[in-house]
Amino acid sequence: MEILGLFPETDRPYWENILRKTGLTEIRLRAEREGYAYQSGKEFYLTGEGCLDTDRGKARIFSKEYLGKLLLHLCKYSIYAFEDELRAGYLTLEGGHRLGVAGQVVMNGQEVHAIKNISFMNLRICHQIIGFADPVLPWVYEKGELYNTLILSPPGCGKTTLLRDLIRQISAGNAFGEGCTVGVADERAEIGGSYLGIPQNDLGPRTDIMEGCPKKIGLSLLLRSMAPRVLAVDEVGDPADWKYLQEAGRCGVKLLATMHGGTREDICGRVPEGVFDRVIFLGKKRGIPYIRGYWNLKGEKGMG
User: Fold this and answer.
1) Per residue in 99-147, pLDDT tens?
2) Are residue 120 and residue 139 in the same domain, yes or no?
3) For the chain, what percent of residues have pLDDT higher than 90?
4) What is the pLDDT of residues 80-92, one digit of tens each?
5) Is the dihedral of CA 193, 213, 258, 89 positive or negative?
6) 109 and 146 fall within a common domain
7) Could you tell me the sign of the dihedral formed by the alpha carbons of 29, 33, 37, 38, in that order?
8) Minimal CB count within 10 Å: which of 105, 162, 196, 264?
9) What's the start-to-end Cα distance of the chain, in Å?
10) Which residue range(s) make up the domain with 45?
11) Phi, psi of 181 (to 5 degrees)
12) What is the pTM of this model?
């Protein structure tokens, strides 16, 4: 259970039982407040005994000192070495897990200089689901050729999980198409979950990642330097991102992207015409993400 190593050794007996829970997706800690865990879409309190419970009276209160101790451990006892990531509000951890942080922001003009007095933490537990993209593969290929595909999803419905597995299967090759080079513009290291430059998630054998820079820069650099046959990016929204996706499409590169939204109407006016051929819609039932339907942007509805 490698995730247990994220916690200081003296704390591991407390966290061991909690981290064994199946379906655990998030642990949220707030200074001088109750701790929460999210399991299979349901919210629980972290108890003083290291269990999950719905009774608030059993909840453990986590001190600001405890959060500081945990952060220091996660930064390998050198906050300075991780200040660039912390400035962006997160840490990418070994195993592909992520720690989101919030606190007092120090500005330098229009730029974030630092986040200090960090009093809020969200540990997002990585769950790479191998085979999650299997149901959509027949829809995104035709005669061995990949369609330009957009994944549309409300928050928390698995769009990054689906994108990650599509990248892996496109890179490795599958029953519908041979393996090919994939370039991933991973602005916040959420797709590959890179730790010290090494992806913690399996994105396939022919995948190259440009991370830590704005999407438009990552897309441009990949297009110029790595000659990808497919470009993938998460959470497109900025007009500049669409510009570079369009440029890549004109160069013959196939495109994979995700975007926040829930209906076909959410695409209208936001997605330039002609960029994508297929749209996959995701949703959630009883807290569990699922593939809600498909659309053919060339006119015919697929399903859902």
Assistant:
1) 999 999 999 998 898 899 999 999 999 888 899 999 999 999 999 999 9
2) no
3) 61
4) 888 888 998 999 8
5) positive
6) no
7) negative
8) 196
9) 38
10) 2-124
11) -75, 135
12) 0.81
Task: Judge whether residue 250 has pLDDT over 90.
Answer: no
Q: Do 201 and 70 share a domain, yes or no?
A: no
Look at residue 81 in the predicted model and tell me its pLDDT: 86
In order of 14, 117, 121, 126, 283, the CA distances from 9 in angstroms are 10, 24, 19, 21, 39
CATH of the domain at 186: 3.40.50.300
16 and 119 share one domain = yes
> Are 18 and 26 spatial neighbours (Cβ–Cβ below 8 Å)?
no
Q: What is the 3-class SS of the chain, one letter each residue?
A: CHHHHHCCHHHHHHHHHHHCCCCEEEEEEECCEECEEEECCEEEEEECCCCEECCHHHECEECHHHHHHHHHHHCCCCHHHHHHHHHCCEEECCCCCEEEEEEEEEEECCEEEEEEEEEEEEEECCCCCCCCCHHHHHHHEECCEECCEEEEECCCCCHHHHHHHHHHHHHHCECCECCCCEEEEECCCCCCCCECCECCCCCCCCEEEEECCCHHHHHHHHHHHCCCCEEEECCCCCHHHHHHHHHHHHCCCEEEEEEECCCHHHCCCCCCCCCCCEEEEEEEECCEEEEEEEEECCCCEEEC
